[in-house]
């Protein structure tokens, strides 16, 4: 199956779609996601405050100062 993208004038769009569907062509609509779903996803994003960042910095320096024990 071949995929084809065409631009159709708005006033002819319904007619062209009807003809193509009659010929067995699969017409896919534009894949759009409602903005409300994006908002819901953004609400679930966690944020870090200064205390969280201090903990990460402390852990980073702790690993930097780590010395392997010699046998």
How would you characterize this protein structure?
By secondary structure, the protein is an all-alpha fold. The chain is 52% helix and 0% strand. It is elongated.
Largest sheet: none
SSE pattern: HHH
Amino-to-carboxy terminus distance: 66 Å
User: Helix proportion of residues, in percent?
Assistant: 40-55%
Low-pLDDT stretches are none
Provide the gyration radius in Å: 28 Å
Summarize model confidence as the mean pLDDT.
Answer: 84
How much strand content do the residues show? under 5%
SS-based class: mainly alpha
Form type: elongated
Number of helices: 3
Tell me the total number of β-strands: 0
Write a brief caption for the model.
With 71 residues, the protein is mainly alpha-helical.
